[in-house]
Design goal:
It contains five helices and eight strands, in the order E-E-E-H-E-H-E-H-E-E-H-E-H. It has 210 residues and is of the alpha/beta class. This is Alpha/beta hydrolase.
Length: 210
């Protein structure tokens, strides 16, 4: 991502977890650590996905240390795909190792947002989770649980109007009972082709708020 990107190896229940860590932009006030989860590994998702990198850049620019990690079976991360269960466990393990205390943010794209939502169920009451960014959350085939009601002021959900991987209607069906706002990008697809600068700005704006 940049010359200062640090390759690290962490431990999860299935073995080694491959991760990358980026320090916040020089001159910014340190805010804490964000852990970012990538899209579905069985469809080519990795921590180098462009949306994941866009999320990392937005957080880095706002003073956060960004940690991306590969799910089970991706890169040198050990284990096999576990349909979100083991992945959520691994996300919690990453948090414990890279941010054992202090301010925390959670982010994810697509399947990674699904995993982040599930991990948040354990994290919310135990940690100071300052910001949550969910992009194109995978809520259609297996809807995740609702977010903790008290977290809503710290949550950004962004979805593309023309997403043909996870329908906007499914995201609205998940968010409606929670009265959870969704930011819709007009004409946006699942991977936000041509709209990554806009996505970065939306996340950056969310991080500046409050």
């Amino acid at each position: 991502m940049n010359p200062r990107t640090e390759k690290i190896q962490l431990r999860g229940a299935a073995g080694v977890i491959e991760a990358l860590r980026d320090a916040p932009t020089a001159g910014t006030i340190p805010q804490g650590v964000v852990v970012i989860a990538h899209p579905h590994p069985l469809f080519g998702g990795t921590m180098d996905n462009k949306v994941v990198q866009t999320l990392a850049r937005a957080f880095i620019g706002a003073g956060w240390t960004a940690v991306r990690f590969n799910f089970r079976g991706v890169g040198v991360t050990e284990g096999v795909h576990d349909e979100g269960r083991g992945e959520a466990e691994d996300m919690l393990a990453v948090v414990q190792q890279v941010a054992p205390d202090g301010p925390l943010a959670i982010a994810g794209f697509s399947f990674g947002a699904f995993v982040a939502i599930n991990a948040l169920q354990s994290l919310w009451d135990a940690r100071d989770v300052q910001r949550i960014a969910l992009v194109g959350p995978s809520v259609e085939r297996v809807p995740p649980p609702p977010l903790p009601a008290a977290s809503h002021d710290r949550v950004l959900v962004v979805h593309g109007e023309q997403d043909d991987t996870v329908s906007l209607a499914a995201v609205m069906d998940w968010s409606r009972p929670q009265a959870l706002p969704v930011t819709v990008v007009p004409g946006g697809g699942h991977f936000f082709h041509g709209q990554l600068p806009l996505l970065k700005n939306l996340v950056a704006r969310h991080l500046r708020a409050g």
